[in-house]
Every structure is written in structure tokens, then in C-alpha cells.
Design a protein that fits this description.
By secondary structure, the chain is of the alpha+beta class. Helices cover 64% and strands 14% of the residues. It contains four helices and three strands. It has a three-stranded antiparallel β-sheet with strand order 1-2-3, with no helix packed on it. The radius of gyration is 17 Å and the shape is flat.
């Protein structure tokens, strides 16, 4: 149902801006697919492995958050640099720390 709402509310804007009415719908479907695949993968990993890898994951997340200060990697928005742009994909590494 939510995908229908996304399409109906953004199709005109997407058509004007990107030339394809289902641009945002496609992005949401890709993100949903990646999330479901990640969920299935990590739900099959034993808890002991996840617990053992937690310090490394924390360190990597901390380093990625620090990389937002690098001028060509961090995306600036309203005077702050919270997003990381890598290979055309932008994400907020501080969310990993949460």
C-alpha cells in the first residue's frame, strides 16, 4: 500500500525532473529488496557471531562517520556534513552508530 502512495504522490514530480514517472517507486523497491535480503541474511547468522563482530562493526562505523569531514566524500547540507557519498550512493553513517 505504501508503494502506491509513493507513486501517486511523486509521479508528476519524477516525470518532470527525471523524465520517468516511476523513478521514486523504483528507488523504493530497490531499497526494500536490499533491506529484505539483508534481513534474511543477518537473521540466519548465529547471535554469537554477531556479538563477536560488534567491536569491529563499531570501529568501522566510527571511521565512516569521521570520513564525512573529508571534503570530497562528505555531502554538505545546511552547513553541516552528515552524509557520505561513495560511488553515487549517499548514506548517513551516524545511523550505523545508533
Amino acid at each position: 500500500i505504501c508503494l502506491v502512495f509513493i507513486y501517486s504522490s511523486s509521479s508528476v514530480y519524477a516525470l518532470e525532473k527525471f523524465g520517468v514517472a516511476h523513478y521514486f517507486l523504483k528507488k523504493q523497491c530497490i531499497s526494500l529488496s536490499l533491506g529484505l535480503i539483508s534481513f534474511l541474511f543477518f537473521s540466519s547468522v548465529p547471535y554469537a557471531y554477531i556479538k563477536k563482530g560488534t567491536p569491529l562493526f563499531f570501529l568501522i562505523s566510527l571511521i565512516l562517520t569521521g570520513l564525512t569531514l573529508v571534503p570530497y566524500l562528505g555531502a554538505h547540507c545546511h552547513g553541516s556534513s552528515r552524509w557520505l557519498n561513495v560511488g553515487g550512493i549517499s548514506f548517513q553513517p551516524s545511523e550505523l552508530l545508533k
